[in-house]
Amino acid sequence: xxxxxxxxxxxxxxxxxxxxxxxxxxxxxxxxxxxxxxxxxxxxxxxxxxxxxxxxxxxxxxxxxxxxxxxxxxxxxxxxxxxxxxxxxxxxxxxxxxxxxxxxxxxxxxxxxxxxxxxxxxxxxxxxxxxxxxxxxxxxxxxxxxxxxxxxxxxxxxxxxxxxxxxxxxxxxxxxxxxxxxxxxxxxxxxxxxxxxxxxxxxxxxxxxxxxxxxxxxxxxxxxxxxxxxxxxxxxxxxxxxxxxxxxxxxxxxxxxxxxxxxxxxxxxxxxxxxxxxxxxxxxxxxxxxxxxxxxxxxxxxxxxxxxxxxxxxxxxxxxxxxxxxxxxxxxxxxxxxxxxxxxxxxxxxxxxxxxxxxxxxxxxxxxxxxxxxxxxxxxxxxxxxxxxxxxxxxxxxxxxxxxxxxxxxxxxxxxxxxxxxxxxxxxxxxxxxxxxxxxxxxxxxxxxxxxxxxxxxxxxxxxxxxxxxxxxxxxxxxxxxxxxxxxxxxxxxxxxxxxxxxxxxxxxxxxxxxxxxxxxxxxxxxxxxxxxxxxxxxxxxxxxxxxxxxxxxxxxxxxxxxxxxxxxxxxxxxxxxxxxxxxxxxxxxxxxxxxxxx
Length: 599
Hints:
Helix content is about 25%, strand content about 25%. By secondary structure, the chain is of the alpha+beta class. The chain has three domains: about 1-85 and about 275-490, Aminopeptidase (3-Layer(aba) Sandwich), CATH 3.40.630; about 90-270, Glucose Oxidase, domain 1 (3-Layer(bba) Sandwich); about 515-599, Roll (Pdz3 Domain), CATH 2.30.42. Strands 1, 2, 13, 14, 15, 16, 17, 18 and 19 form a nine-stranded mixed sheet that branches. Helix 4 (about 175-185) links the parallel strand 9 (about 155-160) and strand 10 (about 190-195). The model is unreliable at about 1-15 and about 505-510 (pLDDT under 50).
């Protein structure tokens, strides 16, 4: 109890200090500590994007920027709002009725069935068909739909695949629920009911969580998840055993699909997206050089985190009780570094040559939404941004002084500059690519050279235990001073850094396939199709003439409504195959011929 009281006093003291601190133009560990203790406090409740606490943190950052003498970066405004889908909710229109041999059962929502988050909305009644694992993979000699008439019917489909005990099964890329719903729709089914089989063993038979998966809902197919108990009843009505059927399919690797003779279901589905708004916060210093002031350096860090239980799927915490994810290292540390660098540059505004934009992004944990919105709605022309420096998780410098820098290949200037400025004894680890899952990626997608500073992951990553007391404040001060030195050199150098497009492995969105198209997803896009923010230089998409902002709507014979459809469509091809791809470009359909490459 005594230890708890001391901790409360310490947190409260840091809160007061953050609100009334003495501002030092130098980059100090004391100010870094005060900022982190404030941003990662219990009061901030994990700073989930769009939450009141994110707003509170944003107001704090804006207040600091004002104190440093910065000017608002967004046409006189400090904030740039962006919309995003925070979550999905079920309406009152959700029901599931089974009719087995004339006996009707109304299942209980949340206990015996649930509607899946990406289901179409509406109502359908149809005959029931068992379609095994719901996989259609003729190239693997397996098709649960072969010889099966499912048009206008409702298919019952098991989770996983017949090689669920293998970690390297060829069936893996066909096993996602979204893909199974897409296949059922292509075969003409009106609805799909997803169920847990008896293997792998799952005695609890949990229903799926209602979770937004980053893509728009499906059209023309209704998707629900039902308890295994009712599948047992369906099989018993036929004199069959569900467990035996699954064992038979698994052992033979052959489908055993069939239509139930006297069973129907009525599905009613209602899912609505809850749209919220996040905020980027940015201030700027106008350069003093009459020519260079028209070029910009962007220095950024994200200030959002996982909240309490809003982003369960991203959390490494597996406890049942909701807990605050404090996000001290991820990324109150980077935000504090941003504030310190802004303060130091603010104290020497007169000698700053290039203009500098200091931006705290939100929505990073949701998929770099804020930085993507920023680059798509930039307050300055993108071709005038000379470089972007990003800090994300810079608070855990270890005893070996290891500092990872990503993006070192995006300009020919970087490695020499980084080594020259390393007077701090860092053991530097260079990664040439400009991706890496943080906000700098939104800039390298726009052909802007980037550097991403990162002291490494740790056991507290995305857990409630990522707290302010575990930050190496002195170590972070050295890292932030190093980033300042790099930014200062870029500012004063007469020649802006060149940009080099680094060829990298397939980006997120192509992970389940053997081939690559070489596209970069437009994170946060919620329209119809798969929108790309860029293409890999020398990749299939680039060679075919695909461009940033193209929306892929057809891949071969398959319609593409979202990134998942795109992934599923690629699974049918091998390296060297040529595919006709239809994209929407400026509202018009354009046909391109893409020759696929191996990963």
